[in-house]
Amino acid sequence: MKKIIITGALGQIGSELIVKLRSIYGADNVLATDIRKTDSPVIESGPFELLDVMDAERMHTLAKDFGADTMMHMAALLSATAEAKPLLAWNLNMGGLVNALETSRDLGLQFFTPSSIGAFGPSTPKKNTPQDTLQRPTTMYGVNKVAGELLCDYYYQKLGVDTRGVRFPGLISYVTPPGGGTTDYAVDIYYKALETGKYTSYIEQGTYMDMMYMPDALQAIVDLMEADASKLEHRNAFNVTAMSFEPEQIAASIRKHIPNFELSYDVDPIRQEIANSWPDSIDATAAKNEWGFKAQYDLDSMTKDMLDKLANNK
Ligand code: AKB
To answer: What CATH number did the domain enclosing 302 receive?
Structure first.
């Protein structure tokens, strides 16, 4: 049975990951932490503590007092926010990661943190991007993610920490909206489709990016953390993806349920430039072969579920 401490618990991934982990490992075995308190069910459904990931001492104390054997470090600024505040992104994304890795090294914790398709750049092969390839990102977020991947490898190879991680594509969910990402349009579009029947995309027509529905992302984290270590050739940056689409394709999928849905464009040059620097589609063969990664949802099954769930939440 695991005892898990999670940072960034009220963020897009954290708030759903905690519900899943508590259902598998027991509510008392999952300590949720975040820099703020909201009225999220995460706070009532099990242990919760306030934690700024820049506070290394408090992070260590919380993990130790809880008796954690696993750290899941989710707190980070996403790509568009990181581009707007590059120094803050460097300090928070790298400082928080180092603190989480150091706590894990000192207490002997298994460790997970997500990397991203943002770890690739314009010189990376754009289609079917291989697991091991050129990584020269041109965004601060990308710089953080590549440095983070290397740091996690270092903590595994040199310091013996059982570090594991995936490169997530854009994640789509009906529970907690993302904030400050480049792929967020693919979440917003569903909310607006139901609210107004139209959406203005800040991402240009024809821009392909990888995406995944949140239930598949959560299952991927659980499966990787439970995977037999002897089978893992890679560790910290497995490519994972479920689908790749451009705005017209998600609109067409929505029109199967809302036939009059209208899509227009008002492109944001900053987020478009970030999207242009990322792959069109990535290859997840290593994740499939080494720990059995498999996504259940494609674009149409995700669209149906998103629209059903959002309509029921209204
Ligand atoms: C973002 O858009 O910044 C994130 C990501 C792909 O890492 N969703």
So the answer is: 3.90.25
